[in-house]
Write a structure and sequence with these properties.
- This protein has 389 residues and is α+β, with helices and mostly antiparallel strands.
- It has two domains: 225 residues, FAD/NAD(P)-binding domain (3-Layer(bba) Sandwich); 124 residues, D-Amino Acid Oxidase, subunit A, domain 2 (D-Amino Acid Oxidase, Chain A, domain 2, 2-Layer Sandwich).
- Helices cover 37% and strands 28% of the residues.
- The structure holds flavin-adenine dinucleotide.
- One of its GO terms (molecular function) is 4-hydroxybenzoate 3-monooxygenase activity.
- Its EC number is 1.14.13.2.
- This is p-hydroxybenzoate 3-monooxygenase.
- InterPro entries: FAD-bd, FAD/NAD-bd_sf, HB_mOase, RIFMO-like.
């Protein structure tokens, strides 16, 4: 098979890129290792910046998002008894939208056949070749038969563990990484949220986050040491811990219910440079990971795709190579700012095992400053709604 862009991975980055390229008349194919059900079963992000909402609107695939998404005008930082509200809408004139990553993926997946976007699921042993030439290709196995797709470009949208990033030679690569000494234990339950806006809590027993996917579905998190096993956390134990860490007001409004999903996700900050090498462009988690504090992962994937779609479209429509040449620098400039915000918020809202009284005093001073300064709240708010692309 021949195409202009072979896209590896049918997560949000790959599907968004595929749809954007198709809409511009650029030929592409998406190759995914898993089945559609498996992809839709991964419970992940849920807070969308304007860039992500805008991309769905540009594709005309935002009908359900507009109908079912919850527009959020602010969020809260809790520190013991104190609740600091960041009035995002008043400070920035913008909002975020709560709409699950699985819903975005479903909307993109469902629209693919009608838009003529081929998505090959169940592709095994995907590998990329000749990325330093103008004729790269992808090989994979489908139902036991070897396959090959020749392309002009390959877009690596295959997440943190995919093969694309590994195809870039170590001699040109730079990696930056911070692994955190805890993970987030998440519980998803069909119960109404305890608050209409997110609450990030820094409690002496640890971090907690109250968030939601809809008026009837809640997503809560607590941080736990990486040695913890999910089997040791009954639903009751999680609800009890949440009630303590989120504080009495949130606890009084918290509805408990059986988990429909629970898991522990390790936290990591990671950036790979460059995001393009030869004919291979990396987008989303394939190139970078942020800790989920601040909800930047999915939104960064969306901004990468925005830049990548622009670069690829200019290449094929205008024979313009400049945007391709500039893709990595442009994407990385925004990536690093989101990494900074996610890292700062993680440091502010978690009790690190090695922290002593000084580090805690710094957290309190920082939260005091945020509570009393409109400038500090503005800085948080503009990062939260997403920096311009
Ligand atoms: C447990 C968890 C919780 C998260 N929570 C949040 C959150 O609350 N807020 C937030 O903003 N972000 C969160 N994130 C991050 C966010 O979900 C990601 O940033 C987002 O999924 C990135 O999209 P992506 O398309 O780049 O990568 P992915 O969603 O990882 O998609 C990559 C795709 O590539 C496919 N693939 C992988 N290997 C291959 C291969 N060899 N061949 C073919 N296909 C392959 C995968 O199956 C997958 O479908 C979370 C992530 C995890 C893991």
């Amino acid at each position: 098979m021949k195409t202009q862009v072979a896209i590896i991975g049918a997560g949000p980055a790959g599907l968004l890129l595929g749809h954007l390229l198709k809409a511009e008349g650029v030929d592409c194919v998406v190759i995914e290792r898993q089945t559609p059900d498996y992809v839709l079963g991964r419970i992940r992000a849920g807070v969308l910046e304007q860039i992500t909402v805008d991309l769905m609107a540009r594709l005309g695939l935002d009908e359900r998002l507009r109908a079912e998404g919850l527009v959020e005008e602010g969020f809260n930082l809790a520190d013991g008894e104190r609740l600091i509200r960041i009035d995002v809408a008043n400070l920035t004139g913008q909002t975020v939208v709560v709409y699950g990553q699985t819903e975005i993926t479903k909307d993109l997946m469902d629209a693919a056949p009608a838009r003529g976007l081929p998505v090959i699921y169940g592709a095994e042993d995907v590998a990329v070749f000749d990325i330093e030439t103008d004729a790269p290709y992808v090989t994979y196995t489908l139902d036991g038969a070897p396959q090959r797709i020749d392309a002009r470009f390959i877009a690596g949208c295959d997440g943190f563990h995919g093969p694309s990033r590994k195809a870039i030679p170590a001699s040109v690569a730079r990696e930056y990484e911070r692994v955190y000494p805890f993970g987030w234990l998440g519980i998803l339950a069909d119960v109404p949220p305890c608050n209409h806006e997110l609450i990030y809590a820094n409690h002496q027993r640890g971090f907690a986050l109250a968030s939601m996917r809809s008026h009837t579905r809640s997503r809560y998190y607590i941080d736990v040491p990486l040695t913890e096993k999910i089997e040791d956390w009954s639903d009751d134990r999680i609800w009890d811990e949440l009630a303590i860490r989120l504080g009495p007001d949130a606890a009084a409004n918290m509805t408990r219910g059986p988990s429909i999903e629970k898991s522990i996700a390790p936290l990591r900050s990671y950036v790979f440079e460059p995001m393009r090498h030869g004919s291979l462009l990396l987008c989303g988690d394939a190139a970078h990971i942020v800790p989920p504090t601040g909800a930047k992962g999915l939104n960064l994937a969306a901004s990468d795709v925005h830049y990548a779609a622009h670069a690829l479209t200019h290449y094929f429509k205008r024979a313009d190579n400049d945007a391709i040449a500039g893709y990595s620098a442009k994407a990385l400039a925004r990536v690093w700012k989101s990494e900074r915000f996610s890292w700062t918020l993680t440091k502010l809202m978690h009790r690190f095992p090695d922290d002593g009284p000084f580090e805690r005093a710094m957290q309190v001073a920082e939260l005091d400053y945020i509570a009393s300064s409109t400038a500090a709240q503005m800085s948080i708010a503009e990062n939260y709604v997403g920096l311009p692309v």
